[in-house]
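ingest -> validate -> predict -> emit
validate: passed (alphabet ok, no gaps, 300 aa)
predict: started
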Amino acid sequence: MSQHDLGIPVDAQRSYAVCVSNAPLDRDLTLYQVPEKPLFKYLSLAAGQKSLDRLRALVIDGKAFFSSPADFNDPFDTFPIIEGPKSRVKAELSVRRAFRRADRLLPPEQRAYAKAASKRPLTRGSLATFQTGMADSARRTAIETGVFCLSERNDSVLMWGHYADSHQGVCIEFDINAVGLTPSALTPLHLLFKVKYQSERPVIRHLFGPGAGEEVMDAFRTKAAFWEYEQEWRAIEMHGARQLFDFRPSMVRSIILGANCSPSHTNAIREMVGGTSIKLTRVVPSAEDFGLSIVSEPTA
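emit:
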């Protein structure tokens, strides 16, 4: 959309989507789920020292890198279908409702202009522009959202292949409950959603309506049924894409080395966790079937 479509500045359009999407993300612990068992993070070490530095930042320094959905391997993940208003009257109502909800997020110098712009009637052509703008705004919000993905599984041959560089990487074990859920100890990794899987793509029907926040967050935690083997959980931070977020390093319980993890990476990781309580284990392919076992790794 151009700077003058609908008479609404682009920054203001972004604010509406942020306002809607951010609605349920206040720190009300009842909105989130608590895993009963440890969760796991697969990591590639393909980038050499850069990968080892990121691993150290994660397990030693307690800094988790939240990815952008733009970098995911699923083009549908966090990008739902957006159904816009079918009439100009409903579209105008949506614009006004959006301004009321987002007014507090706009810079003071934009509020008067935006308020006046919201009262202008939409033309037939601008209705189509408005509908396109809604979808674009929702997509921008998704791309700017940070996501930290975890899994209930540490023995998935597919995930070791996809996310841990063909079994040459590692898998980090997190005990989310190692730090109690109290306001003072709360970190982004405590604010988890269990991903649900379904055959139908999520649809947002009321982007600016009262229930929009719940619809947006439901889309953020919904994936196609063919990903169900991942058994994913995810932490979500608005405006957090490609950023580091602090958490308590004591939540890291162990590092599992891939079956093909190189001796040099193994030695670097062994040195990295020396003197900590982090256990070191390794995946071993079964000699009898297609299963994987996890065994203790020598400390020296």
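Residues 5-296 form one domain.
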